[in-house]
Design brief:
Length: 155
């Protein structure tokens, strides 16, 4: 049984990053019924062929998904867990920036089409939700550290 709430928060971050890694992030369409989708690996056409690779999004999402797993197993080193949660928040912000850059490059790719239509899909917002859970995990680790310090003062 999981006894620390920050473990659940960090597992939620891992789950959200896994979903973001495999779900479509944005949708593009042109006037001639051509459609493309932005995924973590790149821009794909309607048949599933990669039109433009974007492996930097994959790298950011994988790093942001693996760091919470490492953090979970460092439960004896709470100050390090707090620092890793802070680094996780920075990695998640980089993942958001990578998604925005991918969207901008997708816009450039599609802008040659007449009347291009573009939109983000719900999976693109998952790194933003993960920032909240990483913050809550850091706060819970800090609360545990304060409890341990208070117990050490009593002795």
């Amino acid at each position: 049984m999981i006894q620390r709430i920050q473990t659940l928060y960090l597992l939620v971050v891992v789950g959200l990053m896994s979903v973001t890694l495999f779900a479509p992030l944005a949708w593009f369409a042109g006037d001639d019924a051509a459609q493309w989708s932005l995924r973590a690996c790149g821009v794909y056409d309607g048949e599933g062929a990669m039109m433009m690779p974007m492996y930097y999004i994959v790298a950011a999402l994988v790093l942001a998904g693996l760091l919470p797993l490492v953090t979970i197993f460092l439960y004896n080193r709470r100050p390090l867990q707090i620092r890793l949660c802070s680094i996780e928040i920075v990695l998640l912000l980089l993942a958001v920036a990578a998604e925005v850059a991918g969207y901008a490059l997708g816009w450039i790719f599609v802008s040659g089409q007449p009347f291009p239509v573009m939109s983000f899909l719900p999976a693109a917002a998952l790194p933003l939700a993960s920032i909240l859970f990483a913050y809550l995990a850091a706060k819970a680790v800090m609360r545990d550290e304060m409890l341990v310090r208070a117990a050490d003062r009593i002795r």
